[in-house]
Amino acid sequence: MIELRYHVASLVAVFLALAVGILIGSSMVGTPSVESQIRRLKSGFDRIQAEDRRLRAENEELRGQARLLENALRQTVPAVVQGRLAERRIGLIITGQGIDASLVRETKYLLATAGASVGSITTLQGPLLPENPNSRQIILTRSGIDTQDTTRAERQLAARITRAIVRGNEPDLLRVIGEFSPGLALDGDYALPIDAVTLIAGDATEEQAQAMSDGTSIQARIADVLREEGIAAVACERAECPLSLMAYFARYSLTTVDSLDTAVGKIALVLALAGKQGHYGTKPSAAQVLPDLDLEPMPRGESPARSLPRAPQEPGQPRESLLLAPGRSGRAPAGR
């Protein structure tokens, strides 16, 4: 048990220390040393504020220069890509969330400028198998899938869908799956084989990125099938996506472009589909920004813009090339 005299002694010591502190503090107020310290602190704070304003101004100037360079590069895109994919039939496969409809339109127009046709646009977003047991069984039966494990069944279904897109030999199966699957959207002609695939990956969570790394995600199965089919395939994503998946797609021997929504990314995509395999962009997974360019001098008097197809236009949209205008920010279901 604590004795009273020790308790009283400790209280006296505390109050004595407090009194001494107050006395010392009050004696220092207004002294030259304190005022000098205050002036030094204020001077240091003013310098920090000035440095912050300078850095903000420099940052804004750099942003302006970056916008200027991006606009200049966008104007070169038609001349660089024109005719490089002549008579090629390309399939677009879109996976995950966050892909703007404007990015899909820009990609279609880009491929058309390069001379290719987009045979189909297939969007896989969300669960491929419905909750309704009857609809679910119809998909599984028609696809020849005998497992009831949802994760395994959806991976097998994604593989079946991908093969049907590439080979163009099962349009009726795709129609049935598209009718009952809540996560599959079909747009285009699936009765003909395609020559190459552009896979546009949407935003991924950390869990989805881990599944891609482990090889257990739907995207991983799609990439694996594209490798098995031996078709030219390029995996792409936006420059500002939260988590990049390009390093994981590279494991499946797919060419990657990590900035499809930029002029550099557009040029890289077309050159990659034309046969320049590699990993392009500005993120750590990229080996170089662009494929090696093999530009030929343009014949005198010829303009690259004369034979370019007109960009698709919406009501009220300015009459300008989608290649030259930055993509819109609104989220919308991908499609034609």
Quick recap:
With 336 residues, the chain is of the alpha/beta class. The chain is built from ten helices and seven strands. The chain folds into two domains: 4-62; 84-280, Rossmann fold, CATH 3.40.50.2300.
Task: Write up this protein.
The C terminus is likely disordered. This protein is an alpha/beta fold. The protein is elongated and about 95 Å long. It folds into 2 domains: about 60 residues; about 200 residues, 3-Layer(aba) Sandwich (Rossmann fold), CATH 3.40.50.2300. The chain contains 10 helices and 7 strands. A 7-stranded mixed sheet has the order 3-2-1-4-5-6-7, sandwiched between helices. Helix 2 runs parallel beside helix 10, helix 4 packs antiparallel against helix 6 and helix 5 runs parallel beside helix 8. About 35% of the residues are buried. Helix content is about 50%, strand content about 10%. Helix 9 links the parallel strand 5 and strand 6.
Largest beta sheet: strand ordering: 3-2-1-4-5-6-7
Structural shape: elongated
| Beta content | 5-15%
Classified by CATH, the class of the largest domain is Alpha Beta
Given helix and strand content, the structural type is: alpha/beta
For the termini, the CA-CA separation is 84 Å
Estimate the helix proportion, in percent. Answer: 40-55%
Order of secondary-structure elements: HHEHEHHHEEHHEHEHE
**Can you tell me the CATH superfamily of the largest domain?**
Response regulator
The radius of gyration is: 30 Å
The number of distinct helices, counting runs of at least 4 residues, comes to: 10
Average pLDDT level: 83
Which architecture of the largest domain would the CATH scheme give at its second level? Answer: 3-Layer(aba) Sandwich
The protein's oligomeric status is: single chain
Number of domains: 2
Give the low-confidence spans: 304-311, 318-336
Tally of DSSP β-strands:
7
CATH topology of the largest domain: Rossmann fold
